[in-house]
Specification:
single chain, 14 helices, mainly alpha
Length: 243
């Protein structure tokens, strides 16, 4: 990690704890995760040897909270006029984009750490498939990374954090719901190529595949591609602002 990436990462990650935003997001995440697991997920009704109740609703939770972590990353720079100063530094734009993104993504990892006590307490009550649970955490981390990348990109186009949050939530929901299965069924399309293309861009399908233990290259490539594509647009937006 270059010094520019590390410095910006430390600045942005520390800012979550210098304001109330970080603590607020942690509390809301813990409340939503436990509510989803125990009530909506049927924690006491399922076998839960892989904590399926906990992980099933994580994309919905991150869709709401990841934009809260990214909405100020670039919007505040534009609003307070510090973006020009930041871009005047003798560094490439990519480390700037990477540093801000990694700060939000690392905070998402911290949020996931809050669920580890549930893993430990459940393991004390019944046998668990721990390797499967590790895959589930990986699925959550990849999903959170994709949503954070989208949020960072939206923030780069906005000078108002509230607008960035609302637009980010909307786009993240579109990404999460990116499935053409309904249209394919309605049109009665049976072409295998069309179905495969539909499955290849289906956020939930890739997430559920990893959640079910299918850690195939295709599932990993999907999330990594979304992250890199979003950050590429983010970098292009910053370069356009500089020019």
């Amino acid at each position: 990690m270059s010094s520019a990436v590390f410095c910006l990462f430390a600045k942005e990650f520390g800012s979550y704890f210098r304001t109330r935003l970080g603590y607020f997001v942690l509390v809301i995440y813990a409340a939503l995760s436990m509510t989803a697991a125990f009530y909506s997920g049927g924690y006491f009704d399922l076998a839960n040897d892989s904590l399926f109740s906990l992980f099933y609703f994580q994309p919905e939770i991150f869709t709401l909270l990841a934009p809260a972590l990214t909405m100020k990353l670039w919007a505040d720079e534009r609003r307070y006029g510090t973006l020009e100063l930041l871009l005047s530094q003798p560094v490439n734009y990519l480390p700037l984009v990477a540093g801000k993104f990694l700060a939000a993504w690392t905070f998402c990892a911290l949020m996931l750490v809050l669920t580890v006590p549930l893993w430990i307490s459940t393991a004390a009550l019944q046998p668990l498939d721990n390797l499967h649970i590790v895959f589930c955490y990986l699925a959550c981390l990849l999903a959170a990374g994709a949503l954070c990348a989208v949020g960072c990109t939206v923030s780069a186009f906005n000078s108002n954090p509230v607008s960035a949050y609302v637009i980010s939530v909307f786009i993240c929901w579109l990404l999460k719901l990116s499935s053409f299965d309904y249209l394919i069924r309605a049109a009665k399309i049976s072409n295998e190529l069309v179905i495969r293309i539909s499955n290849s861009v289906n956020f939930d399908q890739h997430y559920q595949n990893i959640l079910n233990g299918q850690l195939s290259p295709g599932n990993l490539v999907y999330f990594i591609s979304v992250i890199f594509f979003a950050l590429w647009i983010n970098t292009a937006a910053v370069e356009y602002k500089r020019s």
